[in-house]
Design brief:
- This protein has one domain: AhpD-like (Up-down Bundle).
- It is built from 8 helices and no strands.
- The relative contact order is 0.18.
- By secondary structure, it is mainly alpha-helical.
- It is globular.
């Protein structure tokens, strides 16, 4: 089955609200590299092919390497990611898989080493936002063309 409903067309105000949040995050102090890692990793966990494709292309355009994208789902097994990036990826996984244990105190404390409260809030909101987008896309079966 191909695409289902078009939420942007049927519920434009809701879609615009999501875009507004996305635009806020795009203009926040969250580094593009960090944003790309969050979006791709959460999309991998959520099996959202459309978002994995879109955000990988964007990341490559912004200078991310193909090797790091290829190894992102095995980030714990490589030295290609900085300690700061590893904290962001841990936050991404723990929030995306929230029913397992949620954002742990250990990961949160590790985040405080690298980020201030506003930055942590932006990271969390970025993870929440991509998870919402993944759920929109997977639920409506938006396909990669």
């Amino acid at each position: 089955m191909g695409n289902r409903i078009d939420i942007a067309q049927l519920e434009p105000k809701a879609f615009e609200a999501m875009l507004s949040l996305e635009n806020y995050l795009t203009n926040s102090k969250l580094a593009k590299t960090h944003s790309h890692l969050i979006k791709i990793r959460a999309s991998q966990i959520n099996s959202c092919a459309f978002c994995i494709n879109m955000h990988s292309i964007e990341a490559l355009k912004d200078g991310e390497t193909a090797q790091r994208i290829f190894l992102l789902n095995a980030w714990k097994e490589t030295e290609l990611f900085t300690d700061e990036e590893k904290v962001i990826l841990a936050i991404t996984e723990e929030i995306t898989l929230i029913s397992q244990k949620g954002l742990t105190d250990e990961t949160y404390k590790n985040a405080e080493v690298f980020f201030d409260g506003n930055q942590i809030a932006q990271i969390i909101m970025s993870v929440v936002t991509i998870n919402a987008w993944n759920r929109f896309v997977v639920s409506t079966k938006k396909t990669v063309k």
